[in-house]
Amino acid sequence: MAPATAVFLTPHYLMNKKLVFALGLLCAFSLAQVALAQTGKKKSTGARGKSTSVKTTPAPEEKPAESQLVRLTKEFVVAYGNVTELRDKATVLNYMSPTVTSDLTNANINGRIRYMDSNFDGFEAHLDRLVGATELRLNYRLKTMLHDYQSENVGITVYTAEYQMERDGSVWEKGNETVMLTYKRIDGNWKIVHYATVTIEDEKLRGECFCELFESRPGNYVTKTVVPTGRNYDALLHSFEFLTRGDTRIIKADTYQFRWLNDTHEIYAEDNAPRASSVASQNPLGTLLGTAKEKEEAILLIIKEFFYREACNTIKVRKR
After folding, report:
1. Gap between the Cα atoms of 112 and 251, Å rounded
2. pTM of the full structure
């Protein structure tokens, strides 16, 4: 018996025994997984044995809270945008430090770029012009908040805005502005200590016009007037001829005719002229444009009040 017993204690016997035990554990684990899967399937089966899927709605992502400087910037933009309506410059200035500085870059529709530096007094003078022009309305609104950063005592915000200037109910100009505000905590309150703006004019519908006068022959002139027409400026030519008929001076401008009185220096446009005022003057002389004593003054009056009444607020002249 001893030799037979010794056979079961050999290494080969022990290895086979371990292999059988491992295979048994693997089979038991697989059967348990199948049982669990079937149990889960039964729990998700409807009354008629059809599987029903359970949909879960993801929780909405919470928007990050606005920083204090972003809120202040939005308040500042609203206050500035309402300055011509409320005539309240004090609220706007309250956001500024008395030592505020600024860098201003302006580009007009012709692509001309101007650079300026300013300070608290300059910004207050700008507000005074807006508030003082009772016929002017500023429409200024926030477009995009691009960036903000805040440390313990210093921070910045960067935003873009759209603006529109209206006067007497008509739009004069439109544009976009990119602004960076630098804040500093002063005595516990955040104040703007520096601002940098880049203003790009998109449309110019009314504003300053430029006129050049050329004497074509003695006493008569040709003019070239540069006029804003929206997204650009147009250069337009007109010819002026001065005649005398009895006691009345006549000015011919292109196909139009004007009466220039000797005694009062008044200039009248014929009421049947297409560009004359739509309000009937009930004056046999026509529609009064204004008064002028000299020929050049008469030309500029006709250009501003007759040809380009809706486009030219002021005219700068250059004589050749």
Report:
1. 36
2. 0.60
